Amino acid sequence: MGRLSTLLRPMWARDVLRLWIAEILSELGDWAALIALAILLHDRTGSATWAASPFAVVVIPTVGLGPWLSTYGDRFPRRTVMIVTDVVRAALYVGLAFIEAPLAVLAVAFLASAASAPFEAARSALVAESVAVEDRHNVVVVRSMTGYGAVLLGFAAGGGLTGVLGVRWALIVNASTFVVSGVLVASVRIGREAALEEHTASSALRSAVGVVAGPGTIRTVTVVACTLVFGAMAASGLAVVYASDILDRGAGTAGLLSAAVPLGTIVATVVIPFDLARGSPLRWIGAVAAAGAALGMVGLALADSLALALGGFAAIGLVYSTAVFANSVFSVIVPDEVRASVYGVLQAAFTGAQALGVLVAGVLSDLIGVRMAMACVLGVVVVVGALATVGDQIAPVLAAED
């Protein structure tokens, strides 16, 4: 309870709390609407491909348009960007309740997902702007935990609302979450009222890419973290195949294995005493990732039972927790004037790494079998994590700030 109390302490500040609630509501709306749209398209077409298409459509803006749209969080007041995008998403999801054509549904869903990119970048930048440097890691941890919870609860809420109210009213109820989020953001007092300097989207994006790709801590942590997330996603993405081919079980077991990953991440981020002011951040990240991947390899190699398999997938969650630690580093060292733009670039990089991980894992599994495929991708994580642990020269982040 002491650790949890420490984590939550900075969240009770008036503006941080309102931003936190707005974030939860927006994420609940995003995920609940996604399930409702999948049900809508399946009902209208009877096709599993159409039902799965919203999940692909909402990822595309993050990797493609996301970095460019995220620059609005630096070019305009961040609260204004969040309010406008909340209003836009609310209107789009209400519109979705009355659209019949499947292609039109996907087009509007694409636009709604594109509007999420500047909201999320502006939100992350505004939260960092509103929190003392020494509290940012705790805030990142709590936001990550509630983000995972929003995914699980949003999926459940989307299915439940659709079952009780029907698709149309479920989408309208989901749209209301964005309205409430916008009202909360409008009441926030902290945050600069205007951009620090006038610049175009192109120049802001170039500056952000320069910050991420330039020599220094940000590039090093980004490359390592993206590689680790690539391996974790590749391994966890094989849960369905692992349940079928190794455990000879069905979809229920696959769901349990998949759920064990975020559970492991949540536990790791709460328990592991990651301290930006003590020790090298990259050594922490590398050590945790290597340990999690090694435990996952052992558990999944020996897994003749569901309990061992669940432990192995939960260990993969330790690897995912390193992305939370990396975000803590970014929250401190990314310059405020390009913070939203940089977050957009980082989000695209992380999403791209995860998508590539799923693709590589599927190909490897078909070529050499699911168990060997998981051993290969987790082996990459062990090697990269070990190299980061022994070869890192990055100083403690807060000490470097001082």
Structure commentary:
- The protein is mostly helical and 402 residues long.
- The chain has 2 domains: 2-195, MFS general substrate transporter like domains (Growth Hormone, Chain: A), CATH 1.20.1250.20; 206-401, MFS general substrate transporter like domains (Growth Hormone, Chain: A).
- It is 81% helix and 0% strand.
- It contains 19 helices and no strands.
- The model has no long low-confidence stretch (mean pLDDT 82).
CATH T-level fold name of the largest domain = Growth Hormone, Chain: A
How large is the count of helical segments? Answer: 19
Class by SSE composition: mainly alpha
Instruction: Return the string of H and E elements.
Output: HHHHHHHHHHHHHHHHHHH
Average pLDDT metric: 82
Largest beta sheet, briefly? none
- Find the count of extended strands (DSSP E, 2+ residues): 0
Inertia-based shape: globular
CATH homologous superfamily identity of the largest domain: MFS general substrate transporter like domains
Low-confidence stretches: none
In the CATH classification, which architecture of the largest domain applies? Up-down Bundle
Under CATH at level 1, the class of the largest domain stands as Mainly Alpha
Helix content: over 70%
Whole-number tally of structural domains: 2
Strand content: under 5%
User: End-to-end distance, in Å?
Assistant: 31 Å
